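Weekly puzzle thread! Below is a chain. First person to post its structure in token form gets bragging rights.
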Amino acid sequence: MLKSVRYQVGHWTFVPSAHELRSGTARVRLQQRASATLSLLCEHAGEVVSRQEIIDRAWGRQHLSPNSVAIVIGDLRRALGVSAGEPGSIETVPKAGYRLIGNGDAAIPPAKRRPHLLALAAIAITLIIAIGLGLAALRPGKPQVAFGGIENATGTSRYAPLVQACSQTVLVALGRHSDQFRIVESPAASGSDYVLQQRWVLWSGAPELVLVARDRSGRTVWSGAVYGKEDQFPAKISDKIGQFVAFAQANGARP
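Winning reply:
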């Protein structure tokens, strides 16, 4: 795929190289897996793309659970905000996969530029990069967050599907902030500023998710609990991750 290629998806212009949806001044940043998935759907707009194709071709065979694709598709639908059946919507084809509807196949060719304008642009980009590197040297590095272990302390496997689904929701919620953090999908990532762990317990007979962030020394520096009706967990998890993000931004990377 050309780096300059763009796709029209509903009212959005999708820019794969920037992992962004754009519409006028509006910008929506996509998590890397969501961007790769939408790129593949755009390349095959109007055609059914199987879950396995998404895993093999867009994710490089790396996924965490059978629900991973469905969760990323759900995240894409929320980002696009397009009603089912309308151009730019993503249709679920039972037992087959997913299909992008409408104008998603319309790749927008890059505009032709005159040679002297290209030279000027190259100089400008070089200056911008140099300035950016200089400023980056003055700023503390982005915090690295490791997606830590998951402990099911409920004493039963009954909640295993909920545990797996919510684990993916935590990862997707973290992914929305990938421009602010280095996110590592490893419970034992060395050098991480924070390790975000999940522990499931029973409270008054109902499942409760406890999120705990530890620093490099293993000290607990932040925690939050998610409980209530199971269908409310995704929204509450997003809120809690937002609180963790605010904490991590305030504290920055550890020396």
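Puzzle host: Confirmed. Bonus trivia for everyone else. DSSP finds six helices and twelve strands in the chain.
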